[in-house]
Structure formats: structure tokens, C-alpha cells
Design goal:
Number of domains: 1
Mean pLDDT: 81
Helix content: over 70%
Structural class: mainly alpha
Distance between the termini: 20 Å
Strand content: under 5%
Oligomer: single chain
């Protein structure tokens, strides 16, 4: 990848490594559906002036069906499922399961026009990263129950399908318009749930968590992610979840006192190695191409 792509990759690793900790804090006072609204509505309102200034609102109206579809599979369903699961699972374990996203995306991509060529090096990177995840599952698998784990599988499927919708159906829509439209429609869909489940008490730590989730981990994060996809391709971009996991586990151990297992210590180097190999290509492999679609209107 280019230096710009590596910078964006590092930024995404941090930005999407912290939500697991923040969600774990937020579910102490808020229902999962409320967290979805508090993540999406402020993000939509923040991006709306930019969309109006660039005269892109008409694109949201024109492509609203696929923007809504993207919002449902990327925000609406996954964020509810993840918040529900984190009521019972540690943030560390949650991040481990989400590492299945690149593998699901590669499988799903085989059936679409978005599929990218995979070199032996990238396949090896994915495999090494997966082994690292396997070692990291030294955490208590049975702690949260099968139902919570299945909810995270739903999250993985949604996160894998989202980029495919972007790459095949929304190639002509700039990133700010997509995020603004998707978060806005998801927020409106969840709004009735929000107003009928108002919390009795929310502490300042929870409000701070949802503020960061909305502004940094949603509005800013997806614009950076679209830039990363533009620079490096969707397949490489999704491998960022391996690095997310490392950061999420560190934060969980330090701030939530979650267990530091032998699997974590052994898995970290493999996750880093898998991320590097999975996002780079050997010279002459023909696997270094950048996707032709643009998400950011420079």
C-alpha cells in the first residue's frame, strides 16, 4: 500500500478499536436501540451541512434505496446486535469475533462484481491473522452464552455486506452523502424505540462515550474508511479489523480490567503480521490495484 494508505489504515485501527470499550460503558445506562440512535442521529446532523453545501442531497434522494440498504446492514442491525451482545460479553471477546469480517467478505465477494484478486501473500496474511484470533480465544468462550455470540455473527455478516453494497451500487455517490443519508434514515427508523425507552438516569461517562461513538467512531470514521477503500481497495481495508482487535483488547485490559490471557500475548504478533501481509502485495502480482470507484468528493 502507499504511505497515505498506511496512515489511513493506522487511523482506522485506532478509531475502530475504541468503540468496543465505549459500547461496553454505554450499555450500563442505555438500551441497545438507544445507542443506535445516539450514534447515528448526531453523525447525520453533523454531515448534513457539508452535504447541503456540496449540493449532494439530491444524490441521497436519488439513491435512497441503496443508501438505506447500506445503513441497515452496516448500522441499523449490527449496532443493535453488538450493543445487545456487549451486555453479556467483554469488549475484548466482542472484538475477537468481529475479526471474522474479512473472511466473510472474501466469501461473499466471490458472488459479486466487486471481487478482488487475492495473491498467495494476502491469503497467507488472512490465515495468519485468523490463527492469531484463534489463539486470542483463550478468553472465556462460554461467558456470554451462544445467543450473544450468534448476535456477533450477524454483525460480521452486516459489516462484510456493507462495503459490497458501496462497491456495487453506490459508486457514484460521495462518502459524506452516503454516511449522512444512511445514518439519518437508520436514526429515524430507530427513533420510535428511542422515545419509548427513555432512560431514567444516564451518567456523564455514558454521555461522553456516546458522543465519541457518534462524532469520532461514526461521522469521522466512515469518511476515513472510504478514503482508505479508495486508496487500498475494499479487501485490504477490511483487514483493519485485525488491528482493531489488538487495540480493543488493550483498552479492555487497561480500562475495564478484562483478563490478559496467554492467547492474547501469543496472538498479538500474529495479528500484526496478518494485517501487514493481508494488506500488501508482492511486486508483479497484479494485486495492488486500487478500486475504480470514489467515495470521497475531494
Amino acid at each position: 500500500m502507499t504511505k497515505k494508505a498506511w496512515f489511513l489504515f493506522a487511523a482506522m485501527a485506532f478509531i475502530w478499536g475504541i468503540p468496543y470499550l465505549l459500547i461496553r460503558v454505554a450499555v450500563r445506562d442505555l438500551h441497545p436501540g438507544q445507542i443506535v440512535v445516539l450514534r447515528t442521529l448526531p453523525a447525520a446532523l453533523l454531515l448534513l451541512p457539508l452535504v447541503l453545501y456540496r449540493r449532494q442531497f439530491s444524490l441521497i434522494v436519488k439513491h435512497w434505496r441503496w443508501i438505506l440498504a447500506f445503513g441497515v446492514v452496516e448500522f441499523g442491525i449490527p449496532w443493535y446486535c453488538m450493543s445487545t451482545a456487549e451486555e453479556h460479553l467483554t469488549s475484548s471477546f466482542t472484538s475477537l469475533v468481529i475479526c471474522g469480517v474479512p473472511l466473510i467478505a472474501i466469501f461473499a465477494g466471490r458472488f459479486t462484481s466487486a471481487h478482488e484478486k487475492l495473491s498467495k501473500r494476502r491469503i497467507a496474511g488472512l490465515a495468519i491473522g485468523a490463527v492469531g484470533v484463534g489463539l486470542l480465544v483463550g478468553l472465556d468462550l462460554g461467558h456470554g452464552g451462544v445467543a450473544s455470540i450468534l448476535l456477533l455473527v450477524v454483525v460480521c455478516v452486516g459489516y462484510a455486506l456493507g462495503p459490497l453494497v458501496l462497491q456495487t451500487k453506490l459508486t457514484d455517490v460521495p462518502g459524506p452523502a452516503i454516511v449522512c443519508g444512511a445514518t439519518g434514515m437508520v436514526a429515524l427508523a430507530w427513533l420510535p424505540y428511542f422515545v419509548t425507552h427513555l432512560p431514567r438516569h444516564v451518567n456523564s461517562e455514558t454521555w461522553q462515550s456516546v458522543a465519541v461513538l457518534s462524532v469520532i467512531c461514526t461521522a469521522v470514521a466512515f469518511l476515513v474508511f472510504f478514503a482508505l477503500v479508495k486508496e487500498a481497495g475494499s479487501g485490504r481495508s477490511l483487514v483493519v479489523v485485525y488491528s482493531n482487535t489488538a487495540i480493543a483488547i488493550l483498552l479492555g485490559v487497561v480500562f475495564l480490567h478484562e483478563p490478559l490471557t496467554v492467547g492474547i500475548v501469543l496472538g498479538f504478533p500474529l495479528i500484526v503480521a496478518g494485517s501487514y501481509l493481508g494488506t500488501t502485495a508482492t511486486r508483479g502480482s497484479g494485486d495492488a490495484g486500487v478500486d475504480s470507484y470514489l467515495f470521497i468528493d475531494d
